[in-house]
């Protein structure tokens, strides 16, 4: 059977246009792919071809990232983003799915499975954020200042896409023009910087150890041992706090595990879900 990519689609959820790609494979387990902060579904470009024959895949651009709307009214809390994921999954008539979340997408996956555990049979965390507190009050206050978004834009411009990519991968030889263009594209729209100011304002802290210990959903954790964004110790701590979890780490691998080790990651996901 030939697997086909549906036309990239959008659905209006909570008044916001949410972009997603559906790699249809009827009758197969559904995987919901969630990206991290300052990223998009582009980060799964290397593992989608490795998984699409075995699974029904849905890659979502979380607001305000990727090609989803950069709304100036949406509340950019993790809980709200998790509800967007839940509403999209339910709107597609999917009764049961597996969440795959990278970095911030991992934390949103945890929020989603806490909110609706019956909808998600398993969860895969790839270098998931964890144990972060809410932004400092001074930063939250600053986000209300007119033109604060210009400071965000200036800071990100100073960092530059290439510098950021070198910070998230262990082997910088993996960085090519396609990767640079793919991660730069969402930031060509100035509206994202206004939305990021709102995200700073709305983002609550990550789930607490007590919250995590109540999540009984089977979890797979995969980490890069050279991760400079979310150190491997965070993964080991999540492994301890999540009651039914498996943990694997990769040598010579940084934060962007879906890009750096797509074969290993897709193999582990397949084993975890199909066994």
From TrEMBL:
Domain AB hydrolase-1 residue range list: 30-262
Signal peptide extent: none
Keyword Hydrolase in record: yes
Regions annotated as coiled coil: none
The organism's place on the tree of life at top rank: Bacteria
Keywords, alphabetical: Hydrolase
Single GO term (MF): haloalkane dehalogenase activity
Enzyme Commission number(s): 3.8.1.5
Gene3D superfamilies tied to this protein: alpha/beta hydrolase (3.40.50.1820)
Pfam (any one): Abhydrolase_1
InterPro entries in the record: AB_hydrolase_1 (IPR000073), AB_hydrolase_fold (IPR029058), Epox_hydrolase-like (IPR000639)
Protein name listed in UniProt: Haloalkane dehalogenase
